[in-house]
């Protein structure tokens, strides 16, 4: 029989009737004689979640809220802190509050997690994170960003990535207990994963991540982690735009493309979701990439074509029968350093 979980104490899930339970924390035992000393790796390829339509259910799974931000690894050493993107770029200077908090941890560690900016309801806001970073130029520092850590790969001189997730989480909870500043613990839940997913969607959150509790940390997309989204969100190339004298910034609609094999194909456009600050800067970014040759096989009058360089994060409800995005909304620009992957349409 499935356990009936109690309600989470997390602010972002407060006031929900959905039954949820967080696993109680045990005291952290720092004495680990069975572990041997290991040099800290310069970088670890991240474990990636496989997108599924339904939440996996059962005692083998643990659950977390899916955050909508930038995936990062925080490397903490006695005399330095490095914040690394999935693509291996050093973004330490872009997240000063996270780096400052990491320096106070007091031991060597590699934390895996997501940098986000929270709205007034405690939800992660990708657009707000983009604005905090100053867009793709990287001229500003995201001092308001918070790092939600959900895994521990290296601790106190030891590689712990080979351990079960439940054991890594036990150590992570002890390490980050009561921290509420630039680095916080991403809460874990067990029990009814569907109830957590329903609560997440009810509160306008991105979705949930399900993880096998007995799995080691394995790089790549191998199925140990599963993501289920309340609303679909993926990355697409901007290949052109339709000018508008009535729209803010002069952009009426962005034209989007995805990969089918090595070919770029048109997947529709987006004309909603633009924030004022981002919309004012976007035309200048696009105009610097103008081209007379359409990057996709599409004939349309009045379009300003651009080189497929800028990657937009797009939220949408579904796909139409002819392969176009339905009810698309613009969320912001992804960064190449974030290892943003343009959506790949399955062949056949």
Beta fraction? 25-35%
First-last Cα distance: 41 Å
Portion of residues within helices: 10-25%
Note the main sheet. 6 strands, mixed
Write down the overall geometry. globular
Tell me the total number of β-strands. Answer: 19
* CATH superfamily (homologous) name of the largest domain: DNA ligase/mRNA capping enzyme
The count of domains is 2
Strand-pairing-aware structural class: alpha+beta
- Please identify the top-level CATH class of the largest domain: Alpha Beta
Quick check: average pLDDT? 85
Low-confidence stretches: 1-22
Identify the CATH architecture of the largest domain. 2-Layer Sandwich
Output the radius of gyration.
Answer: 21 Å
Quote the CATH topology of the largest domain. D-amino Acid Aminotransferase, Chain A, domain 1
Order of helices and strands: EEEEHEHEEHEEHEEEEEHEEEEE
Number of helices: 5
